[in-house]
Amino acid sequence: MPTISVFFGISIRMYFGDHDPPHFHAAYGEFEAQVAIDTLEVIEGNLPRRALSLVLEWAVANRDQLRVDWELAVQHRPLNRIAPLE
After folding, report:
1. If residue 81 lies in a helix (H) or strand (E), which one and from where to where?
2. Model-level pTM greater than 0.85?
3. Is 7 inside a domain boundary?
4. Which helix (H) or strand (E) holds 42?
């Protein structure tokens, strides 16, 4: 599972050939959540409130790049790194 971004102790990853809907995985310490790219809804798992807020802020700013990476992951092609939240 490639890591596509890391910021403030949060790792953002995508699995190759993962299931729909298009989503990414956000991990922070012992917590992990799957977040839908189109709706930014947490579809599984959970994160602390502050970590989730940072993840959503980052995802809004990078939604187009996340969609590109999702398509690459479906095709089992190398993913692009996405700039971290600063």
Report:
1. none
2. yes
3. yes
4. strand 42-46
CB 45 within 8 Å of CB 32: yes
Domain residues for 27? 3-74
Give the N- to C-terminal CA distance of the chain in Å, as an integer: 23
Indicate the number of domains in the chain.
Answer: 1
Quick check: 17 pLDDT over 90?
Answer: no
Q: Express each pLDDT in 29-45 by its tens digit.
A: 999 999 999 999 999 99
12, β-bridge pairs = 5, 26
Query: For the CA atoms of 64, 44, 7, 37, what is the dihedral angle to 10 degrees?
Result: 0
Pairing of strands 42-46, 31-36: antiparallel
For residue 80, give both structure tokens: 């692009």
